[in-house]
Amino acid sequence: MVSKNFIDYAIKLLYKDRADHAFSFIIFTFIVFILSSVLFISSSIQNDLSLSIQNSPSVVVEAVRAGKKDTMHDGYIYDIKRINGVSDAWGVVDGYYYFGQKRIWFHIIGLDELDENEMIIGEGVKREMAELYYEDVFNFLTEHALIPIKINKIASHSSNIITNDVIYLNPTTARAVLSLEEGEYTKIYVDVPNENEISQVALSISNLYPNTQALSMEDRISDIRHLYYYKGGIFMVIYSAAMISFFILLKNQISLAYGSKKREIAILRSIGYAIKDIIALKFIQNFTVATSAFLLGVALAYIYIFIFNAPLLRNVFLGLEIENSVTFTPIVDFNMLFLIFLFSVIPFLAFVIIPSWRIAIADMSEAVK
Fold first, then answer.
1. What pLDDT was estimated at residue 233?
2. How many CB atoms lie within 10 A of CB 147?
3. What is the dihedral angle through the alpha carbons of 230, 234, 237, 241, rounded to the nearest 10 degrees?
4. Dist CA 245 CA 340 (whole Å)
5. Cβ distance 169 to 119 under 8 Å?
6. Which keywords describe this protein according to UniProt (predicted)?
7. Mean pLDDT over residues 107-133, rounded?
8. Of 177, 207, 221, 286, which sits with the fewest C-beta atoms within 10 Å of its C-beta?
9. Across the chain, what does the average pLDDT equal?
10. How many CB atoms lie within 10 A of CB 125?
């Protein structure tokens, strides 16, 4: 059992050598900050998008032709409604409009509640339009005509993660903007009351129309998680940078153990410290450094993501085409934090304690020379 006096001595020794441990503390804090920031922003986006999907239809059907999205017609809806377990199916207009003056894409969604001459736009769309002085009316340029539409209102900021690049239009107007014919749909939504039948219904639709992708709610949530776990490979770049920093940290720890600390350990052994006492001393010192750096790194990441809304890193996960001013929902995955703790603190302690142990069991007369 380690006594209170022993712990006090270890802490005082740590304070005396604070300059030696400062580098390790800073690097360790930086590593935890990077990993925790990626974890927080990824978990928050996944949570918000998953919640939005849970309010959407059970199955979403899209047609594919020559590897690109194709349109569907009322015949698809008629056949899908006849599948066992389907309570309703309806076509929707959903596509993208290229805003050539800014070289960006707007997401067009048909909404029955709107009149044909009005629209609702996301905050990102509003900013892009305002830069070219489209304040009240926006002119859609199509291959057949110029379509002026009144900007009715702006989508709420709380839904910005979904609506930032979205323009809601009446389906008739949306068809005109996207150059679709009457009765053409880009997606079909399917309602399946029994959750246990959703996967079977999706499979039946794919078998009925092999040119379609029928994605269940579970498939869409899985796609979102996959996307944000590996978003653009950027996470791996950040992760690699963190690991390189970590190896620099470990190398520094080994240098400390084999350098100036070698003589210190030899002196402690010569005045009667047992090997287990030296191991305990090094454990207390470095566990204190690692734990305090871990907590500081997590706290800084929380402030960076959920209070300052992750400048720079936000664009990595949400895309750069239209800047998104989303406010992230605070989501803390304690299981992942625990894994970060295990895979950072334990290797850190191992790279300090093992060299210290090897010095402690060596010939002390050589060590003090």
1. 56
2. 16
3. -110
4. 15
5. yes
6. Cell membrane, Membrane, Transmembrane, Transmembrane helix
7. 89
8. 207
9. 82
10. 26
Alpha-carbon gap, residue 182 to 113, rounded angstroms: 18
Distance between CA atoms of 64 and 43, rounded to whole angstroms?
31
- Residues forming a β-bridge with 118: 150
* Over residues 83-104, mean pLDDT: 90
Rounded Cα distance between 152 and 273, Å, is 78
Amino acid at 126: K
- Buried b / exposed e over 270-293, threshold 16 CB at 10 Å, is eeeeeeebbebbbbbbbbbbbeeb
pTM of the full structure: 0.71
End-to-end CA distance of the chain: 33
Instruction: Select the more confidently predicted residue: 196 or 365.
Output: 196
> H or E segment at 34?
helix 18-54
Closest Cα partner for 192 from 44, 47, 339, 86? 86
Tokens of 310: 């992750």
310 vs 329: CA distance, rounded Å: 12
pLDDT at 364 over 70: no
Element (H, E) at 150: strand 146-154
H or E element, residue 223: helix 217-229
Q: Judge whether 63 and 215 are in contact, CB under 8 Å.
A: no
pLDDT value for 264? 74
Take residue 198 and report the two structure tokens written for it: 């959703």
Compute how many other C-beta atoms are within 10 angstroms of the C-beta atom of residue 15: 10
- Residue that has been written with the tokens 């030899």 in this structure: 266
> Residue type at 155?
A
